[in-house]
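Sharing a chain and its predicted structure for anyone who wants a worked example. Both blocks are below, sequence first, tokens second.
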Amino acid sequence: MSETTIYHNAACSKSRAAMAELAGREVRVINYLATPPSRDELLELLSMLVDEPSALVRRGDSFIAAGLTRADVESAEQVATVLAEHPELMERPVIVARGRAIIGRPTSRVREFLTEG
């Protein structure tokens, strides 16, 4: 059985719900706030992401406070640079399995992703 990875934030209810969906599986848990991925690791993650690269960036108050705009997160390269500098802006949870990655929002996406062949 191939390993599944989750980029997780225990303070996030959606991330905790995704962990519940992963129960019973071999899971590598990455607390991306405690151990932020490097720019190269983020580029690798983005290459597997089935969503648009910009979807990996949260656009709340911290995004605005960092002086960022939509134009700053249009490409995978830009997203990797921004998230390497501001890991708190990473959307969560992110699930990686079988060479593909998804953002687990809504939680039903996690269930569907895990049952795909």
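Comments welcome. The chain has a mean pLDDT of 95.
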